[in-house]
TrEMBL record:
The keyword Repeat does not apply. It is a multi-pass membrane protein. It is found in: Cell membrane; Membrane. Keywords: Cell membrane, Membrane, Transmembrane, Transmembrane helix. One of its GO terms (cellular component) is plasma membrane. Pfam families: TauE (PF01925). This is Probable membrane transporter protein. PANTHER family: MEMBRANE TRANSPORTER PROTEIN (PTHR31154:SF4).
């Protein structure tokens, strides 16, 4: 254990090198190319992403989970801008957190992660070109609200059970890879490409709700897949030439904050635990769903609001269905509520 920790510390110079390269490039942008005023004009986003980047490193909810509603709900910007900003800012914050995680040699669910990365490479790329351009801003906003709202509700009433799992990620590698491939393909194309986030939630849910893996493994794995998907998103958006106006200014202000904030989240929760942070972010996820419905109530009308509520319920039922499968595979009564600290058998593959 001591050798493992010392090796992790010795590799942190690679993370330091990444920071030096990034901050050097950022300083060139603001000092040499004269973008300091642009960064200064967008300082509120830097302030918002101080919280968003911490959540990105400490929970399965990417930095875009905060950046998207701040831009769209608080600043009244188009949802497509929130999506593009999520890709851009996570390509710095989540990548920085991922490098930090890898340098510390934290355990990851490698089989599912490899499959999800391959699936995301294909799904996100296709989604950016073939799906996202045809999704209206209102539906982008509602998709985000429903996905993360249901995820927040799940954590509010299953948090004790989720934080009680102690299983590792070793299992049936071929099945884990195949599951990750399918989930990465679908979540990349229909969630990440449309909202800028979501694939991290899907992989995390598969690991925790289905495979009953320890959060110390599931959350870092979700951080890495979101970092990879964000880079794919940035490349795809750049190739398509379809960046929304305003992304660069907000990114310029927020990037230097998230480059340190996300790794800080990784480090802090290793000391204080994940439960308090998960609880706060879950409440924020539910809050943004309520806020979105309130803001769009005039457009949606009673039927639209009812449809949004039904969609939230369907997503929650989907999580519960997957949970029951996971409990059955683990040999646990599917109707039983698991309390914190209780020991349950763990299944790590299908």
């Amino acid at each position: 254990m001591r050798h493992h920790a010392s090796t992790g510390r010795s590799r942190l110079w690679l993370w330091g090198l990444w920071l030096a390269v990034f901050y050097g490039g950022w300083l060139i942008l603001v000092a040499v190319f004269g973008h300091w005023q642009t960064a200064e004009d967008h300082w509120p986003m830097a302030l918002a992403m101080a919280l968003g980047s911490y959540a990105a490193g400490s929970t399965p909810m990417g930095g875009g989970t905060v950046g998207f509603p701040v831009l769209v709900l608080l600043f009244d910007m188009p949802a497509s801008l929130g999506r593009d900003f999520s890709f851009a800012v996570q390509s710095i914050g989540m990548v920085s957190a991922s490098i930090f995680i890898l340098c510390r040699r934290q355990p990851l669910a490698w089989s599912m992660l490899r499959g999800a990365m391959l699936g995301s490479l294909v799904g996100t790329s296709l989604g950016i070109f073939l799906i996202a351009p045809f999704v209206a801003d209102l539906w982008i906003k509602l998709t985000f609200a429903v996905l993360w709202g249901s995820f927040g509700v799940l954590h509010l009433y299953r948090l004790g059970e989720i934080t009680s799992f102690t299983g590792d990620a070793r299992g049936r590698e071929r099945q884990d890879f195949s599951l990750g491939l399918v989930l990465g393909l679908l979540a990349g194309g229909f969630a990440a490409a449309v909202t800028g986030v979501g694939i991290d939630m899907v992989i995390y849910a598969a690991l925790v709700v289905l495979c009953r893996v320890d959060l110390k493994i599931a959350i870092p794995t979700s951080v890495v897949i979101m970092a990879f998907t964000s880079v794919v998103g940035v490349v795809g958006k750049s190739l398509s030439g379809d960046w929304q106006p305003g992304v660069f200014g907000n990114w310029l202000a927020a990037a230097p904050v998230v480059a340190l904030g996300a790794p800080l989240g990784v480090f802090v929760v290793s000391r204080i635990g994940r439960r308090p942070t998960l609880l706060v972010v879950a409440m924020l996820c539910v809050g943004q769903f309520v806020w979105t419905c309130f803001e769009e109530s005039a457009v949606l009308g009673p039927r639209g609001l009812a449809l949004a509520a039904m969609s939230l319920g369907v997503c929650i039922l989907g999580f519960e269905w997957v949970r029951r499968i996971g409990m059955r595979l683990a040999g646990v009564d599917a109707g039983r509520t698991i309390h914190p600290g209780s020991q349950v058998p763990v299944s790590t593959g299908l």
